[in-house]
Amino acid sequence: MALNLLTDRGVPLDSQRFTWKDLVQKPISKLDDDAFTRIRIILMNGVELDSLRIKQVLLRMNGALRLPVAQLMRAEQHQATLVNWLIGADHSPIETTIGYEQTAIEVTASVAKLEPDAYLAQGYRYALLEDFDHLYRYSALLDRLEGKDANNITQGHTDIVPARPTRVHHRAPEHELLRPYPLDAALATKLHALTLTGGEYQTHDYYMNIGPLFTDPLARQLYAEIASIESQHITHYGSMINPDESPLEKMLLQEACEVWNYSACVEQETNPRIKAIWERFLDYELGHLQVVIGLFKEHEKRDPAELLGDGTLPPRIAFESHRAYVREVIARESSMRKNGTEFVAEKQEGKSSLAYRQQMNSEGSPSETVSATYHWTAGTELMRDAERRAA
Prior knowledge:
Blueprint: H1 20-23, H2 35-61, H3 66-84, H4 93-114, H5 118-146, H6 151-154, H7 187-210, H8 217-238, H9 247-268, H10 272-300, H11 305-308, H12 323-333, E1 337-339, E2 342-344, H13 351-360, H14 366-370, H15 380-390
Antiparallel strand pairs: 1-2
């Protein structure tokens, strides 16, 4: 898809209109739709919500931008609603959780392969192994509480096995930070960091809202444990973003990030009805980008080409199974740890993380308990049904 961030104008903001029926469309089917359609929905909801978050902060900090930011936020709110409401009620909360973790795995794996900065690519692979293990722990919970096979959600695209154990993911804050990308980093590097930060923020917030709704005490503890790690991941990815960017610079990059991600969805979506939504919102985001480009020129007196180059979009996220790649990373890097901003061998891990982890796990590890007797087996539900009938 030949798009240009500087010259493609999309749909003007004042022509972007919705109705309530428009916002709440027919949801996807958890069994009949492709798993990567759900992954795209989850990802784009996270990207939209992070765009709203950036604008809400800017609204509180800059009086001159309050009106255009409020106008942009209204459109983003409606886009986020339409996208998020595409997840159907046939998904239980844990099944949706499985979808969130599969999204984190496949999207992060693609970003790690695309990232040109070797240090930041290492950062993506590091957190990838943790989300991969979270999928295993939640799959055990799904089996425990609902007797369901998580593969009904993942559709065989993503392995369900342990990686770096969740119990060792807990780190002291000083060992969660990374070195930020430089101000002159490649546009791809900036878009990658924004995408993953938004994705992790969404996952964290979902777990914080869903966790208290369970009656099972172990489920409540597991969501509390992994929500804490997702908060760490927000810090991990968020610290990749350069803190010296101006607020308008950040908003401009966020709009470019939305265009970049929607274009990937348009290119790869297999459901014609959902693809039409991606095409519509790609045009809307191009319109948003033009608004922010105008604000950037007016208020900062800067050329947007400083950030966007010639306007060419970097290579997009690949919505496909990364099983072979993830297996290689698990085999090579599961024992890796953090010390300050550096990735180190297990024995060199920062001592304050060891103390923090010992305290948090001193009364037991929910992630270990939930999977103590669990081992994923292909066709779990069908096999159990057959065994029950035979008995």
